[in-house]
Design goal:
The protein has 127 residues and is of the alpha+beta class. It is built from 3 helices and 7 strands. The protein has one domain: Gyrase A, domain 2 (2-Layer Sandwich), CATH 3.30.1360. It is globular and about 35 Å long.
Length: 127
């Protein structure tokens, strides 16, 4: 992979597909994608490993995620963890589909769940 950031929907989705391919080729434990911080919130991130997406959500973000999942029947929440020391919820989602659909879902999730604008920048920070 020669690039690690993108700021258009097509560019981000191509980047995510490339990152998934690199992750699978390297047999790494997971890959991490981060987006720009919005306001005072920390930068949102999504991890992917072996057909599972992992992300942290506030209560409002979790509601938006659950609503988004109604449009993606191939995805389902596998586990919700609410650590006592954290303000949010860690969500694990089964995403057993092809890399292109996973990439599309990640991009839409950043926009819908985390209020990213259509021209947000995403970085692959770990493969």
């Amino acid at each position: 992979m020669t690039r690690f950031a993108a700021d258009t929907a097509d560019g981000r989705q191509a980047l995510f597909v490339d990152a998934i391919a690199a992750h699978e080729h390297r047999e790494s434990p997971f890959l991490t994608i981060e987006a720009e911080a919005v306001g005072e919130k920390p930068s949102p991130w999504v991890q992917f490993a072996t057909g599972t997406l992992n992300l942290d959500c506030t209560a409002a973000e979790l509601d938006r995620l659950k609503s988004l999942l109604t449009d993606y029947p191939a995805y389902k929440i596998d586990d919700l963890t609410r650590p006592e020391e954290a303000d949010g919820t860690n969500v694990r989602i089964e995403a057993r589909t092809d890399p292109e659909r996973v990439a599309e879902f990640i991009d839409v999730a950043f926009c819908t769940v985390y209020d990213q604008s259509g021209d947000y920048t995403a970085w692959v920070t770990q493969i």
